[in-house]
Amino acid sequence: MGRILTEELLDKIDQYLKGELSEQERLSFEKLLQEDEQLQEDVIIQKQLFAMHGTSTTDISSNETDFEAIALLKEKLKTDEYLRLSNKIRTIGNENRISNGKPRKRKTHYLNYFIAASVTIFFATLFFFNSESSLESYYSENVNWENLPSFIDKGNALDNFTKGEIAFKKKEYKSAILSFENIETTNELYPYSLMYIGASYDVLNENEKALDYFNKLSQLTEFEEHTKGFWYQLLIHLKLDNKEKANEISKIILKDKNNYNYQETLNMKL
């Protein structure tokens, strides 16, 4: 919206929170609140600031927008909104600087307190958001499809596996899938084709298909590295933030210390 927080607006927020507005002014302000998301954040921050300094405020939890619950903001904020809030804090700070060699008067100190509260709430919210997204962070930290086994040097340049692997490395995932799907189940490279197909679907965000192929891999018990299929399924469930499914797969992996990435799974502490 590009609105700058002014002393006048702060006064209006203060009066609203302290119950000093007339009935008509209050209704008008609350109507504006419903339409202005940035103002909602300003009110939340100011209310938190009052709480930090022991200043009592009126009960506004009955309003259509529940400003009492900071959790609402935590659930609502996304990365771009964090940036917007951060920019807003920075803008307030710039407005607060000395202008023409003269310090701002009246509520300069008050604006400084507001900035401090903004920063505190901003990083508290960021911490909450990151902790809630820890499953996806596990995925990001552990996924690395570049490390899939390579057989380019061992195969003919025209065979399906080699063509699929070359396409995969070129990030041409749909073409890679088409090549790998032509690998016969009797081919010794068939299990590896399942890895590449699942990885391709993962990158393409076709997660259910990725899970299907990784499950097929985990069922090839005669294949020495079949337990990689469990690990890859775990990664997808982490990516999808599906804690229940992630726990189910992790329990399978943790049944045997010889299973692929047993220790990494243990360290996740799901």
Automatic annotation (TrEMBL):
Protein name as annotated: Tetratricopeptide repeat-containing protein
Highest taxon of the lineage: Bacteria
Transmembrane portions of the chain: 110-129
Protein keywords: Membrane, Transmembrane, Transmembrane helix
InterPro entries, per the entry: TPR-like_helical_dom_sf
